[in-house]
């Protein structure tokens, strides 16, 4: 029989667990609003922009790529919002343009001299890359997000339901959009190194989507989403440790299983 | 209403049980016996494993393990997996190639300060990484290049490999004096076999030394040196390496200018480039095995080297006769 506690002997696993316990509730929380606002594609594009962020950091010689990634993602998110709200073409076209453009720039810079393999761990994530400093960043973003949620959730929800009506109620619609986009950018960037670019979006979307299959009101929607997110995060981490696979994909597989079960049975359970 | 919560809890519990059950089953299938072993030796990748395997030979109470290296090439940019960290935490001796190939060594040395590390390359003067002026790497500084500024693929040269084997044997004897004679005997037997290989190489060298070649893998610089071949151009094709059109034309002009007849490439990553070159010029592309992965048999290094020699012999003799 295997020893289900042996993973706790390792410093990097404790670090990873701490990171997951901090970040997965945020994924669940932000996911609800991303799904409501139909921004799934937006957060996906943000994830892809991490490549460019790192590339910019490498070019500018910034030693801590976290910083360049975060700065770039925030700029990217703001720009995307700005152009998206002005342009006459639909948002998904704009996002697609931005996303592929930034991926191309990132790939071009990082692949120069055949160096891309050095960064390929970014694509699937590397749980060993979590450091104490990053946990510090995560704690800060956790506090900021919770505060934002407590104070601004009603506004966000109102904007989601009816934009024009919210505006007439003097809700700062534009500002809320920007702040939300920046927060998503920060969360995505700070967890991308261990989750991986290819699947980070799944972590934002799946718990909320599963929760939508079940819930009938906002409170349930949030609670289920957070539970699913934390559950798949912790379980994915531990299973990935024993099966020796990358952690990000394992988490996403579990989150997907939850999604499909709720998809097929959710309607029956609601009755 | 309440039923929904119950069902959700049941679902999560079922997933938990199923996941743990499957994992438990999987782990019990793959778990190895580790009791009764006194010394655990871990090697960083394939050529080191084969060398250590031969040195250790039948010595009792030694467990030899390899890191879960990537199956795709050299371990240039390999990241340690949690499994590797677990393995290293049980290790007494860690045998690495050195020369900067193990880019993760800093992490390992920090995490396990008591681990005895044997660097197989320490007694070898490595070739420099910038083998040729035409080798394009302007966009990066030396430290950024995965190998640092040396070419660490020393195992591709039989004589350097012999030095590595001896270094490993000496290192193991130092770490584990009790089995010292077993290690030295193992090394001696293996070195004898390698000497046979080297004699055959010497013979071939007399025939082909001085020929111009182009290399598609940094590792073959050692092959070229062993045979006294003249390297006109080196293009380090590797996993996920994107070749630009400019490089293709550089290679082609080097082929024409230097009247190069032979190109040494690795099948896995050099194939598409090799096909292009063959179509565009009359140079012959020889696919050698860089011996950075393969089966874990004791003789697989020697067999791989023999196969490489046969390819070279066939190509160069065919032209002469």
UniProtKB/TrEMBL annotation, chain A:
Signal peptide span: none
One Pfam family cited in the UniProt record for this chain: ABC-3
UniProt GO cellular component terms: ATP-binding cassette (ABC) transporter complex
Biological processes per GO annotation: response to zinc ion; transmembrane transport
Compartment annotation: Cell membrane; Membrane
ATP-binding among keywords: no
InterPro entries: ABC_BtuC-like, ABC_TroCD
Domain of life: Bacteria
Keyword Transmembrane attached: yes
Membrane topology: Multi-pass membrane protein
Sequence intervals crossing the membrane: 12-35, 56-81, 93-114, 135-158, 178-209, 221-242, 248-266
Keywords: Membrane, Transmembrane, Transmembrane helix, Transport
Assigned protein family: Belongs to the ABC-3 integral membrane protein family.
Protein's recorded name: High-affinity zinc uptake system membrane protein znuB
Gene: znuB
From TrEMBL, chain B:
Family note: Belongs to the bacterial solute-binding protein 9 family.
Single GO MF descriptor: metal ion binding
Annotated protein name in UniProt: Zinc transport system zinc-binding lipoprotein AdcA
Source domain of life: Bacteria
Keywords: Membrane, Signal, Transmembrane, Transmembrane helix, Transport
InterPro entries assigned to the protein according to its UniProt record, in alphabetical order: Bact_metal-bind_prot9 (IPR050492), ZnuA-like (IPR006127)
TM spans (from-to): 5-27
GO biological process, one term: metal ion transport
PANTHER family reported in the protein's UniProt record: HIGH-AFFINITY ZINC UPTAKE SYSTEM PROTEIN ZNUA, HIGH-AFFINITY ZINC UPTAKE SYSTEM PROTEIN ZNUA-RELATED
């Amino acid at each position: 029989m295997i020893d289900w506690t042996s993973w706790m002997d390792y410093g990097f696993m404790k670090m990873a667990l701490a990171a997951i316990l901090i970040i997965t509730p945020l994924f669940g929380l932000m996911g609800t609003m991303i799904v409501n606002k139909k921004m799934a594609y937006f957060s996906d594009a943000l994830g892809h922009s991490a490549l460019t962020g790192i590339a910019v950091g490498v070019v500018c010689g910034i030693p801590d790529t976290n910083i360049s990634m975060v700065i770039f993602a925030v700029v990217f998110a703001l720009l995307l919002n700005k152009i998206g709200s002005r342009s006459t073409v639909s948002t998904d076209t704009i996002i697609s343009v931005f996303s592929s453009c930034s991926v191309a720039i990132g790939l071009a810079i990082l692949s120069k001299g055949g160096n891309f393999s050095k960064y390929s761990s970014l694509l699937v994530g590397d749980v060993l890359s979590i450091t104490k400093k990053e946990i510090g960043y995560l704690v800060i973003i956790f506090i900021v997000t919770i505060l934002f949620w407590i104070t601004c959730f009603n506004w966000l929800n109102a904007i989601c339901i009816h934009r024009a009506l919210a505006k007439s109620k003097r809700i700062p619609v534009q500002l809320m959009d920007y702040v939300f986009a920046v927060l998503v950018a920060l969360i995505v960037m700070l967890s991308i190194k261990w989750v991986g670019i290819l699947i980070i979006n799944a972590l934002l979307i799946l718990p909320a989507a599963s929760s939508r299959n079940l819930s009938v009101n906002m409170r349930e929607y949030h609670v289920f989403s957070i539970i699913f997110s934390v559950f798949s995060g912790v379980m994915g981490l531990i299973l990935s440790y024993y099966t020796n696979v990358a952690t990000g994909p394992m988490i996403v597989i579990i989150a997907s299983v939850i999604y499909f079960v709720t998809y097929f049975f959710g309607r029956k359970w609601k009755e | 209403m309440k039923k929904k919560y119950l069902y959700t809890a049941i679902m999560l519990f079922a997933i938990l049980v199923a996941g743990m059950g499957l994992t438990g089953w999987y782990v019990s299938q793959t778990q190895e016996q580790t009791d009764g072993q006194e010394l655990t030796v871990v090697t960083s990748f394939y050529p080191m494993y084969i060398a250590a395997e031969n040195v250790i030979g039948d010595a009792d109470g030694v467990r030899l393990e390899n890191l879960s290296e990537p199956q795709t090439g050299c371990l240039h940019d390999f990241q340690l997996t949690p499994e590797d960290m677990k393995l290293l935490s049980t290790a007494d001796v860690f045998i690495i190639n050195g020369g900067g190939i193990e880019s993760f060594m800093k992490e390992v040395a920090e995490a396990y300060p008591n681990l005895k590390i044997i660097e197989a390359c320490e007694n070898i003067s490595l070739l420099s990484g910038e083998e040729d002026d035409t080798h394009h790497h302007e966009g990066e500084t030396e430290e950024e290049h995965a190998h640092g500024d040396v070419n660490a693929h020393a195992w591709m040269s039989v004589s350097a490999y012999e030095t590595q084997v001896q270094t490993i044997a000496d290192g193991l004897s130092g770490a584990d004096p009790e089995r010292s004679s077993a290690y030295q005997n193992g090394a001696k037997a293996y070195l004898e076999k390698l000497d046979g290989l080297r004699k055959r190489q010497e013979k071939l060298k007399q025939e082909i030394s001085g020929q111009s070649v182009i290399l598609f893998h940094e590792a073959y610089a050692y092959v070229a040196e062993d045979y006294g071949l003249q390297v006109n151009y080196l293009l380090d094709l590797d996993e996920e390496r994107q070749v630009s059109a400019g490089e293709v034309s550089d290679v082609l002009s080097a082929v024409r200018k230097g009247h190069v007849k032979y190109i040494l490439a690795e099948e896995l990553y050099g194939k598409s480039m090799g096909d292009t070159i063959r179509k565009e010029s009359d140079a012959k592309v020889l696919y050698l095995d860089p011996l950075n992965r393969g089966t874990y048999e004791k003789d697989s290094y020697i067999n791989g080297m023999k196969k490489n020699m046969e390819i070279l012999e066939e190509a160069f003799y065919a032209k002469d006769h």
